[in-house]
Amino acid sequence: HMWSETDTDYEREFTDQWNTQVMRYAQRVPSLGIPSQTRGVVDLYDASTDWIPIYDKASLGGYYMACGTSGNQYKNAPIAGKMMAALIDYCEGGADHDSAPLLYRLPYIGRDINVGFYSRKRQINDESSFSVLG
User: What's the DSSP call for residue 9?
Assistant: First the structure.
């Protein structure tokens, strides 16, 4: 991975790491092929300061965010999507998530989580590993 300070001006060429990973994958999936130029729908990871994702409303009314996952939360996408839908319903129904955070019941284990933990306004977690491990 290459660090970039901006999302508009950064190196878009393939890295040695990218080439190695694509070649490894192409050996496992021969029909994949190896592209000669970049293309796709995404090309940057985003990460929050403490690497804990942000699932929250934005300061601008009607906008919501699920970001800062560094790309490692894809396995959680179905639940994150359901949680975001619940958060949007909660906020659009008149609740103030900043002062009274949504409690979301995880459907498969029946446990409630405080969605405020993922707030855009949270204090940085000094106990974080500052990595994808959180």
Answer: S
Q: What is the pLDDT of residues 14-30, one digit of tens each?
A: 778 888 888 898 899 98
Backbone dihedral region for residue 51 (phi beyond 0: left; psi -120 to 50: alpha; all else: beta): left
Q: What are the pLDDT digits (tens) for 113-133? A: 999 999 999 998 888 888 776
Report the half-sphere exposure of 65 (CA within 13 A, side-chain side). 18
What separation, in Å, do the N-terminal and C-terminal C-alpha atoms of the chain show? 18
Distance of CA 106 to the CA centre of its chain: 18
Assigned token pair, 44: 């940057």
Distance CA 47, CA 67 (A): 7
Beta-sheet pairing, 103-106 with 111-114? antiparallel
Residue with tokens 């008149």: 94
